[in-house]
Amino acid sequence: MSSPILDRPVTDFIPHRPPFLFVDRVVEHAGDELTAEWDVPEDLFAFQGHFPGEPVLPGVLISEFCFQAGAVLIYATSQDDQDAPGVPVLTRITDARFRRIVRPGTTLRARVRITERLANARYVDAQVTTADGAKVTRLSCVLAVAPPEGDPA
Questions:
Q1: pTM score of the predicted model
Q2: Residue 100 is part of which domain span?
Q3: Which residues form the catalytic set?
Q4: Which residue of 21, 29, 42, 112 has the fewest CB atoms within a 10 Å radius of its CB?
Q5: For the chain, what is the domain count?
Q6: What is the per-residue pLDDT across 35-68, written as a single tens digit (0 to 9) for each?
Q7: Residues 137 and 127: beta-carbon distance below 8 Å
C-alpha cells in the first residue's frame, strides 16, 4: 500500500522553502520510517565559497537534509504535530559521522526513523547514502515543535 505522503509536495509538511529546502522528494514511508532524496544542485549557493574549484558539500547541509527529512516524517505521521502551532527545530545532534565527500550533482538518500517520543520531542536516527548506496553520514538528533514567536511556552 502506498503512503499518501509520496503523492504530496514536501512543502505540505515543513515550512522550509528554496534556497533552504533540501528534501526534493519522499520515496518511501512506512510507520515511523521515511526515505527522502535530495539532488544536490551543481549551482548550490554553498559551492561558491566552500572549496572553490574543488567543491565539497558542507557536512552541516548534509545534516540539515537529515533534519528536514525527519521533520517531514514527524509532521506526516502525527496529526497532533501537524496541528501544533510553531515550527520544527533541532534541539540536539549526537554521534554525527561523515564518511564520504559529496560533490555537486550527487543524489543523496536519507533514511530517517523515529526511535522515541517524549512530550514534543522526537528522537530520530538518520543514515545518508548516495543513490547507489555508498555510505555518507549517520547521525542521531532530537527535533521538536517550537512555539510560535512571542509565545512564552
A1: 0.93
A2: 4-146
A3: 50
A4: 42
A5: 1
A6: 999 999 999 999 999 998 999 999 999 999 999 9
A7: yes
